[in-house]
UniProtKB/TrEMBL annotation:
Subcellular location: Cell membrane
PANTHER family: BYPASS OF STOP CODON PROTEIN 6, INNER MEMBRANE PROTEIN YBJJ
Membrane-spanning ranges: 12-31, 43-62, 99-120, 132-153, 165-183, 278-299, 305-329, 341-360, 366-386
Alphabetically ordered keywords of this record: Membrane, Transmembrane, Transmembrane helix
Organism annotation: Streptomyces pakalii
Protein's UniProt name: MFS transporter
Keyword Membrane included in the entry's annotation: yes
Domain Major facilitator superfamily (MFS) profile positions: 217-409
Length: 409
């Protein structure tokens, strides 16, 4: 694989991450409009919302099987257009079964898309021999900000869902299809890693589908779950918390999630530099401590502006954990990284499903301040499993160490 081919592959994959960020933000930020368009009751809405991550998990499981026969780039090339067309279907339908089918396709395709994108990201990082994974997730965050902004504009101008979605899909769909021409599998022509070792060699890689392999992967699965519990807490409860608990205005209550998105983007934009300089273990530990401190500040905040500081800390802290968890799975199973990433990706959706109901139930039964301590403790638990990111093989850019299989017990 030439240097130009790797650069083109990296750029095209970054585009895919950005497109997915736009599409997902356009869906989740227009949920009230979707509910109104289809007459979905408040009691039925959680069923629709839960179905998407559940089906996404199924899509990730299916992708693990499919990539045993075809390359992840092929899955990604077809999954991304399906996601965009399903989004358009959500906007175009009128009957309840229309939105049910569209969201079902969206969920399955998102699972395949997330899994295959991260598979390609892990393989490209291995070929580069230095940390680039966080940069791909920065592109996703940038797309999320763009999508949320477009959704705000659609709501502000009272556009229908179809009118909001059609021009965006009209631009992104051909861009994604054209960009897919340069998707690159990050293996050299000889099938070797950057240090010259065979791609299929490595402790734990021989049984990626078995009990031993899952035991090795389990710490990363827990970390992924904890990170997404923290993320879903911010996305689902930050506005309510600021307004109902900290007494902010309704307008100010919309700010924390925007702040969280921006700080997530900024943190991911520089995250790879931190990994190259200090190593993945140190960066993940630092991010976990910062995120836990953010939840603590939110829990004890006397007013809205201090609470805003806590949500800012959360963005900078949580942003590095997910991409580095995918990267660690790739190092742990160098000969079977695709299967490891697909398995790990399921726990993205587990955390998303658990986080919001968990905080809501604790808030109703106890207090919302106390409920914020639960994701704090879970994020701190990442420190217990920090060795899953080591030895500090992510110092690729320093020229001292090359990637090797992590020793995870």
């Amino acid at each position: 694989m030439t240097d130009a081919g790797l650069r083109h592959g990296r750029a095209s994959l970054g585009l895919s991450f950005g497109v997915q960020g736009v599409a997902f933000a356009l869906l989740v930020t227009r949920i009230p409009a979707i509910q109104d368009q289809y007459g979905i009751s408040d009691g039925l809405l959680p069923v629709f919302l839960a179905a998407v991550p559940i089906l996404a998990g199924a899509g990730s499981v299916a992708t693990e099987k499919v990539v045993a026969r075809v390359r992840p780039s092929v899955v990604l090339r077809w999954a991304q257009p399906l996601v965009l067309l399903a989004l358009l279907g959500v906007g175009a339908g009128r009957e309840m079964w229309h939105v049910a089918v569209a969201l079902g396709v969206f969920g399955l395709a998102v699972g395949a898309l997330d899994a295959s994108m991260n598979m390609l990201g892990v393989s490209l990082q291995r070929a580069y021999g230095r940390s680039i994974m966080t940069g791909f997730h920065a592109a996703y965050s940038l797309g999320g900000i763009a999508g949320a902004t477009l959704a705000w504009a659609g709501a502000r101008w009272e556009l229908s869902l179809l009118s909001s979605y059609l021009p965006v899909v009209g631009v992104l769909l051909p861009a994604a299809l054209i960009g897919s021409r340069w998707y690159t599998e990050g293996k050299s022509a000889e099938g070797k890693l950057p240090d010259g070792t065979e791609a299929g060699v490595g402790a734990g890689s021989e049984s990626a589908g078995g009990a031993l392999a899952f035991k090795l992967l389990l710490p990363l699965c827990l970390i992924m779950t904890f990170a997404y519990i923290g993320d879903s807490t911010v996305s689902n409860w930050s506005a309510k918390y600021l307004q109902d608990v900290l007494g902010s205005s309704e307008q100010l209550a919309t700010v924390p999630y925007n702040v969280y998105m921006v700080t997530t983007l900024l943190g991911r934009a520089v995250g790879d530099l931190g990994v190259r300089r200090f190593g993945a273990v140190a960066v993940v530990r630092g991010g976990s401590l910062l995120a836990a401190g953010g939840f603590a500040v939110v829990a004890v905040a006397p007013g809205a502006w201090v609470g805003m500081l806590g949500f800012t800390m959360l963005g900078f802290g949580l942003c590095v954990i997910v991409p580095q968890t995918f990267a660690a799975a790739g190092r742990m199973f160098p000969g079977n990284s695709d299967a490891a990433v697909a398995r790990l990706n399921i726990f993205n959706y587990v955390g998303f499903l658990v986080g919001s109901p968990l905080v809501g139930a604790l808030g109703d039964a106890w207090s919302y301040r106390g409920a914020m301590l639960v994701p704090m403790v879970l994020v701190l638990a990442t420190l217990v499993y920090a060795r899953a990111f080591g030895p500090e093989t992510a110092r690729y850019g320093g020229g001292h160490e090359r990637p090797r299989t992590a020793d995870v017990g």
